[in-house]
Protein 1
Amino acid sequence: MSPRRRNLRLKMRYRLPLELELTILEIAAPPLAIDRLHDRVAFFINVALVHRSLTAWAQERLRDQFLYTYIPRPDEHDRLKMRFEAGFGRDRPLRRLYLDLSRLPSDINCRKECGSDSVSATINGRAYGPVSSPGDPGNLEQAQGRACEAVARYVQNGTIQVGKWEVCAMITAFSQALDMLWLKLPIIKLDIADLPPPRVLYIDDGAVDDPWGWFGLLPLASETVLFLRNIDISAQGTEHGYATRHMIFHSCWATEGSLSYVLDRFPHLETLVFFNTEVDHLVSTLVAPPASLRHVHILEHSIKTLWAQIDARHVLPHLESFTYTLLFSGESEPQAGADDGSERHELVDLQQAVESIIDAPHCSFKYVRSIRSPEDALADALAAVKLPS
């Protein structure tokens, strides 16, 4: 027996029981968070290659989530079709979908008309590769056809209102049993309201530069936990009455109006979390949510919200918990110093302002300074109100 094989046998002889190994790997796996999904997939791929006893377990978890990033190439639709059919079907529905559509072109409506100059200009660019002879009608027609194929089969024009687009029928068909959907928005106005509402819906800014507030284009239900991240929230919408009861604002802001106007569109809200989100006036924001609100948690790196007294009635009578967490954002462990006294006074002022307008006899109020990482602090906040992180 070769020395290499002998050493391998010696190493395998001292393995932990398989059940314990799998438990450790499960704990070590990156979480189901939008920024860690690709790491999670890479982790299980590596585990599958370590030893044959781990392969089936790792492959099963690889199918727990489907990650798709749109790339503008002529055979994109066929590539996606092959991936869907290889991993999912009637006996194995898709449960978790990551959909990055941020590279969908803004001139998608022009791509559907193969005679358009917009198509040929784009296909001759780097996105679709060069055409050998732009002046050759035959090559140009072929290039335009490839450009149309790259987008026209992927999204279809919305039938209700002009300017809205829907995902293609194939994505819709495979998304009928989603538990979690992570969506990076395209620059076009995407309408996915006809999808069955998932338990968790995570919306990221993606390619959107303008204020966004198209809540009516989302598949929302009362049980849907709605995450909004890196979005300039538009408060100009007129639609109201959304059924969603749980909302998390992650690094959001509002350049048009105030977030308080956005909250007014969700009359059944029960859980509200602000993480690193620009709240223009904390007291007025707390006046805006409906009386149904039961849990509020605000996490900030500095006490920058304004809490000047306003003529506000007593609000949120059913509130059960209000937590304000001042996040630590330094590179080293926090040290006691002059700033501690200033922060304590600011927290006391904040407490007085908040509790002067909230009339909730059974509410627990907490004002804390955290030394955990912002990501861990947010995960703790969501776990405290029994929401997924």
Protein 2
Amino acid sequence: MNDKGINNLSIQTRVDELNDFTLLHKNFGNVAFRAIQKNNFYSGFSVGMERITRLLKEDKFDIESFRQNPIDGVREFIHGYFADRGGNMPDIFIEGNTVFLETKFCKNCLTIEAEKLAEQCHEDVCAIYCRTFAKGIVSVLEELFPEIVINFYNVSSRRDGKDSDCREAFQILSPKRVENPS
């Protein structure tokens, strides 16, 4: 598994990455944040590819079951990622056609701790870092199952310096009509 973004549980690695973001911002201005966001998305996408490949090799991913219930499939896929990674485990649950990732009163968010040690950070570092990485992981499923569309959005965030809450949503729209998926 690659060691970028939220995949790495080392505080020093996160501080280094945030300092790299600052360096890019100092040299390129706000346009750097688009590049940083893309990089984090692709790092997450790479992790998603590694995950699905490993699950297929281990015969632990049922393509037909996913097609029958992509909402539960997305929940299982992202839950499995966090379980394998270790560290903080968000609550992952389904409401209607939406999979939610939610942390409540998280006292040990590595990104927030890294922000305190880093030179300077984007005002919403989670938007360009953590959220984008998670979106990349799940986007693999959207590419491999073109009959679904996944809308990703942040529902709420609280970062008051004491505890942190966040709620991210993956809304699964299915089925998108595909004439010839092969």
Protein 3
Amino acid sequence: MANQQGEAGGRERLRAWSIHILTAIGMLPGLMALAAIFENDAPLALIWLGIALAVDSLDGPLARRYRVTEVLPRIDGAILDHVVDYTTYTLIPAIFLYRFGLVPAGFELPAAGFIMVVSLYCFANKEMKTGDNFFSGFPATWNVAVLYFYILNSDPVLNLIVVLVCGVLIFVPMKFVHPFRVHRLRPVTIPLTLVWAALAVHLVLESRGAAEAATASPTAYWVFIVVSLYFLGLSVWRSLRGRLG
């Protein structure tokens, strides 16, 4: 009986370590994204950032399911996750924005620095999530922001305004939807998240020929916009509900 319990405990620890390793592996696509940035390959950098995002979407549910915090109390999975997320959600996208001139000339370095500094307060916020698993304040998803700048080919001045607004929203309790953890409308949100991801990859790859995404694949482009509006609408609805209710 004792041997069986020991074997079960050993399996639990091995599984818990495997999940922590999965979290840490998220650094590797981040490194590949950084290498792509240095090679001036914006589409490839975005694809690697997308892979890092996919890894991040897996480790949290696995950690909760297998009680990783209880099995390995010495390792703080939340801190580990925050370090990886800050790198792939904030640091590398800030470098991306700087390298590819997504804001007006002369503002690249200040904008990247602004992103890196204000995002620290997002990751240090103990009340980052609401009781129904929405984010409270902009969740420093600059990887998604630079993806939109790239796909939409938006004006650098507009991009700079968006950066400033999102930076301020880190400190404002506006609600932003977590596509996997928010229970309300989950049967709709999760499939749309997968559609959004597939369309984003498609549009980024289509742009590798130097054509704008809207021109290279107009149908996919407008479906991407409509799906994006769903997530925006859900976030605005939750924010207004909290304020009015």
Protein 4
Amino acid sequence: RLDEKHAKVEVLATGLPASPGAAVGQIVFTADEAVEKAGHDRKTPVILVRAETTPEDIHGMEVAIGILTSRGGMTSHAAVVTRGMGKCCVAGAGDIEVVEKAREMRVKGQVFKEGDWISLDGTTGRVMKGKLNTVAAKPDDPELMKLMSWAEPFRKLGVRANADIPRDAIQARAFGAEGIGLCRTEHMFFGEDRIKHMRAMILAGNEKDRRAALKKLLPMQRSDFIGVFRAMDGFPVTIRTLDPPLHEFLPRREDLMVEVAVLEATKPRSPKLKELKALLRRVEELHEFNPMLGHRGCRLGITYPEITEMQARAIFEAAVTVAKEGVKVFPEVMIPLTATLKEMANQGAIVRRVAEEVFKEKETKVDYLVGTMIELPRAALVADEIAKEAEFFSFGTNDLTQTTFGFSRDDINKVLPTYLEEGILKQDPFAALDREGVGQLIRIATERGRKTRPGLKVGICGEHGGEPSSVEFCHHVGLNYVSCSPFRVLTARLAAAQAAASDKLKVEGGRTK
């Protein structure tokens, strides 16, 4: 946290408290600048300032001690990623104008350039001028540990973590996570040694070339899964197949257009120009007006079944490898964005076929489940049908909130302050679960799914999994677990225990009467 006792505090802007904590550092405007300025030893503290972040900014976000964006909400890319990393983030600070080309941040008539110091309070959403002092947190505080030891015996709801790499899985276990509720495979493709193969797959004009590129990605994915399985020895790991639209793995359309224009004017015969034009053509082909409701999730796996095949093979080859080492492994393969039984059946059949192929080749079997991520109202309403193929449900409450309300989670901050002020909404539905609408869909889907498949395992893996009132709701609806960012696991455990203890007190109070 920030130490403001004897400091002169000038608040420049207030955004959303997207990820708690404090950060004091020098401004940088691009991910590459963050890496360069922070250095290999990371001795120079930097704060990455962007209009909004994208998956291409991951390398800069990793070295920055804090993130500030002028756009985006509580479930924006910056918010979700920083919560997973345990870094401070203020998102949607609308009073701030980020001018990337000029390398400037403008607010309240003041101009801040690269290297200027600012301080962020991720708990309140405040952005402050200058260099304030900080007070380090104590995650192993004896009093906190004592409180957790009192609370744990009451808890009935399981708590897992959203983790994509072994380091995060290890951190999650240290906080008491009982498995991984969401492992996002797409984050594994953004490494420098992988993105070129991913782009080769996307640019491929036929299945043969796509499979050739996927073959190069297979050992990389397998290695990642091996690390995660080892870290979660004895606990289930839910792995989501590829979810985002393919354009997210390619350079931005606008950036490519600028590069092409510059080369046409300066080096019209450059071999790179031909390469960039081909890339731009593919980006244009993949361009969608509403990509979050477009060619993504299970739709990708149905259009390009070889992608699902490769990922399933990587999962089961990794599972068999660690099982032979004595690791207790429980993979759960999750198909995203299903809306119909046939979508689930299509992708489930591929996963199960590949699993049997791997077990036969390796002469070893492991237990596994194939389920789905419920993110669309239709899926919730026909959950009894989908449960014929899905062996578990996990509610992706970020997108389920988005598709139920019709709000864009990245743009809601344009209307949210007014909605809260006028009392139209009591709270940000992306921060705390909307019980009246989204919550009812969760209740309906859980009840209908379990009518078809008694004992169906059900959880949530959206950011609501670490928010106390949302955890309480999940307890009362009868979910098996919640899953949240590693650094919110303690909060979720405590909230789950409080919900159970409250139930017990009500029952005992009723008996007394």
